[in-house]
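Researcher: Next entry in the queue.
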Amino acid sequence: MKLFAATALCAALAAAPTLAQPVPKTADGRPDLSGNWSNVSLTKLERPPSLKDLTLPEAQAKALAANDPILRMKLDRGPIDPEAGPPAPGGATGHDAIFLDNGDSFARVRGEYRTSWIVEPEDGRLPLTPLGQQRRREAAAMSNRMDPAGPEELAPNDRCLIGSRGSGGPGMLNNIYNSNYQFLLTRDAFVVIVEMGFGVRAIPILKDKATAQAAHRPAALHPWMGDSTAWWEGGTLVIETVNVHPEQGRFGPIFLSEQGRVTERLTRTAGNEIAYEFAVEDPVHYTRPWRAEMVLTALDGQIYEYACHEGNYALPGILGGARASEGRSAR
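Model: Structure for this entry, 331 residues:
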């Protein structure tokens, strides 16, 4: 009889819905955002042209994920032939697929599989002005530059100034790998350590919105990842960022001018989840304000130091290769 009762109890527990982990609190009663978090996902900032809706049925989301090109490349890649020799000129690529980590599923936000982080406008695309479209073309050309006259012609992430693909923020975007963050929350500050590029945002928390907005530093300073201040609205930490460094603002992927403003909101909805959204206003690069939503999930382990090729030692080789190419062309 006891065995039957124990078995029935185990079956009932197994059938019961999984309860969300409780939200931990700080000493002053705020939701604790501290910890290690990730936004790794097949979902990206903009919606692919092949997908029309913001959400996907579960079956379609899983089918598309299973056929993701990077994931298929990892599964299909055979051993490298040690006798094959180096690739032909122009045939080398940046990363072998084994080093990439795009995730293996689309993100679930508010219980729905999402095709883009952007939720407004409804098409999931950046509402770029003509100048914004020009910035996108210029950024792509800079990323592919093989013959720079000097280091200033290389992308900021290639010079180890910021992380690539907008991973550092504002807003914080997922990358091709290292889509991880460490958060530290105190009563007076919120600190974000970005694994990709190992950037740090130290953001003061003020008593209210008006005080935080008044605390922005002079526009002439324009630091990398911008000038951020924060305040609480109930259980949500709100971060406002202005005056992003001009080189970062021109390079994107979130293009920002001196008029740009990014408002981020972080709400810890469970012990293992933070709801994260951000809104962007910039009449120079966008025809209208736009907004994005994502979920940050808790990591079991620590993030790692990203040394960015150990102090940028690759630059002399890049520039030396460009000068050698120029010398051959001049003969």
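Model: DSSP finds eight helices and 13 strands in the chain.
Researcher: Noted, moving on.
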